[in-house]
Design a protein that fits this description.
Low-confidence stretches: 7-35
Helix content: 10-25%
Number of helices: 7
Radius of gyration: 24 Å
Largest sheet: 7 strands, mixed
Mean pLDDT: 91
Distance between the termini: 99 Å
C-alpha cells in the first residue's frame, strides 16, 4: 500500500510537470507570435556612429537582461537572411536597471557598406522567433552636396496621449519631407528620464520611422539630471568623438554630405566642451556648419552660460543653431558679436552671422510666449506641436517650419 502511494505521488508529480511544460510551451508560442519573448528587441532605433555613407548603428532593449544581441544586414530590400551574403554583427550587450526591472541593452554597428545603397536588417538574439521585424535603410551618397533632414524638439511626454502627438508630428514631418535622411531631436525626450513606460511610448509611436531613419539625439535637462543620463544614453549608439569629461553620448559630431553637425550638451561640462568645440569646428572642411543643443543661446530668452560657445560660432562661421527647451517658436535674425547683421552688412565675403531657432515642441507641452527681444525675427506661441525641414543644396540652405496639421508657419533661406 505504501509503495502504491509513492507511485501515485510520483505519477501526479510527473503529470503536473507535463502539464506545466505544455502550458509553458503554449505561453512561449503565444509570446513569440506577439513578439513578446524576453529576448525580442523593443525600442529599436538607428543612428549614425561612423561614416554615414558606409556604416549604420543600432540600439535596442530586451526584457531578458541576459539576452545576447545580434544584428543581421543584407543588401537590397525584402531579401532573405539565409544566404552567404548576410553580414552578421555581434552586439555589445550591457544591462540597465529601470523602474520596470533590469533590462538588456544592445548596441551594434555595421560598417563596410556601399554608399547610396539600400540594405535590409533585423535585430535579435539569433534564435528562431526572437527577431525584430525586418526594416530597410539607405546609406548616404558619397560626396553629395545635398541633404534634407528633420528637426524636432521636446517631445517630453508623460501619457500615451502625449506621445501620440509626438508620433503624429513625426509622421507629418515625413509626409512633408519624404526624402529626409535623418532626424535631429533637440532634447527632453520624456518628462522623467527614468520613466521606462514613457520611453516605450516614445519609440512605439515612431518605430516605423526611427528603425529606418537615423534619430540623432541632443541631451536636454530632462534627459540628464544631476549629471546622470544613463536612461537617456542607453537608448542611442552615437559617435564617440565628443568632449573629454562629458557623459559619453552627450556631445559628438558627424558629417552628412555638405554639412557638419555638432551636438552639444548644455547640462554639464561646458568648459571642456568649449575646447572640444573649438577643435571640432576648426577641423571640419564641410561648407555648412550646424550646431544642435538644448538650452538656447538666443531663443525665447538668452542663456549667458553659453557665451563662450557663441563666440566660437561667430569665429568659425556656424550657419545655423538648432535649439529647444523654451516650448515656443523663435527665430533670430543673423547674429554676429551679439548684434543683428543687417542686409547692408551682408557683402560678398563678409561674415554672414548665425541664425538661432527653437522649433517650439513636438509633444503636448507648451509654455507662455516670452517677451520679444531685439534679435527676434519671428517669435510666437501657436500651442501646437511643430517640426522643421532643413534642406541644403549646393550654396543654399532652406528652412521651413510647420505645425502638426501641416500648416507652414515660417521659412527662410541662407546663401553662401
Amino acid at each position: 500500500m505504501k509503495d502504491l502511494k509513492i507511485v501515485l505521488i510520483i505519477g501526479i508529480i510527473f503529470l503536473v510537470l507535463i502539464v506545466a511544460a505544455v502550458v509553458f510551451e503554449r505561453l512561449k508560442a503565444e509570446r513569440a507570435e506577439a513578439g513578446l519573448l524576453p529576448g525580442t528587441p523593443y525600442n529599436l532605433v538607428t543612428t549614425f556612429k561612423g561614416d554615414t555613407a558606409t556604416s549604420r548603428a543600432f540600439t535596442w532593449y530586451t526584457e531578458d537582461a541576459a539576452a545576447s544581441g545580434r544584428l543581421e544586414v543584407v543588401q537590397g530590400e525584402n531579401t532573405s537572411f539565409d544566404g552567404i551574403s548576410v553580414i552578421r554583427v555581434q552586439a555589445e550587450d550591457t544591462t540597465i536597471k529601470t523602474d520596470a526591472g533590469k533590462r538588456g541593452v544592445h548596441k551594434a554597428e555595421v560598417s563596410g557598406l556601399e554608399p547610396g545603397t539600400v540594405y535590409t536588417f533585423r535585430a535579435g538574439s539569433g534564435e528562431d522567433g526572437v527577431w525584430s521585424a525586418a526594416a530597410s535603410f539607405t546609406t548616404a551618397e558619397a560626396d553629395t552636396n545635398e541633404v534634407t533632414f528633420i528637426n524636432v524638439t521636446d517631445s517630453q511626454g508623460i501619457t500615451a496621449a502625449d506621445f501620440a502627438v509626438w508620433g503624429r508630428t513625426l509622421n507629418k514631418a515625413f509626409e512633408t519631407f519624404p526624402a529626409a535622411q535623418f532626424i535631429v531631436h533637440n532634447g527632453d525626450f520624456t518628462e522623467e528620464a527614468e520613466d521606462s513606460a514613457a520611453w516605450n511610448s516614445f519609440f512605439s509611436n515612431a518605430d516605423s520611422l526611427v528603425t529606418r531613419i537615423p534619430l540623432m539625439p541632443v541631451t536636454g535637462n530632462h534627459d540628464e539630471v544631476d549629471e546622470q543620463a544613463a536612461e537617456f544614453t542607453s537608448h542611442f549608439n552615437v559617435p564617440d568623438n565628443g568632449a573629454k569629461g562629458s557623459i559619453a553620448g552627450t556631445s559628438y559630431s558627424f558629417d552628412y554630405g555638405p554639412v557638419h553637425v555638432t551636438v552639444l550638451n548644455t547640462e554639464s561640462n561646458l568648459k571642456k566642451q568649449t575646447e572640444w568645440l573649438r577643435k571640432d569646428l576648426a577641423g571640419t572642411d564641410k561648407a555648412w556648419k550646424i550646431v544642435a543643443m538644448h538650452r538656447p543661446a538666443y531663443g525665447g530668452n538668452t542663456y549667458k552660460k553659453l557665451d563662450d560657445w557663441v563666440e566660437l560660432f561667430d569665429k568659425y562661421g556656424v550657419d545655423l543653431v538648432l535649439q529647444g527647451h523654451n516650448h515656443e517658436y523663435s527665430r533670430s535674425y543673423p547674429l554676429l558679436g551679439g548684434k543683428v547683421v543687417t542686409e547692408k552688412q551682408k557683402t560678398a565675403g563678409a561674415a554672414r552671422g548665425t541664425v538661432y531657432v527653437v522649433t517650439n515642441a513636438s509633444g503636448n507641452k507648451f509654455n507662455e510666449k516670452k517677451e520679444d527681444q531685439f534679435y527676434h525675427a519671428v517669435h510666437f506661441q501657436n500651442n501646437k506641436a511643430m517640426f522643421a525641414g532643413i534642406t541644403i543644396s549646393g550654396k543654399v540652405l532652406s528652412y521651413q517650419a510647420y505645425d502638426v496639421d501641416g500648416n507652414k508657419l515660417d521659412e527662410f533661406t541662407l546663401a553662401h
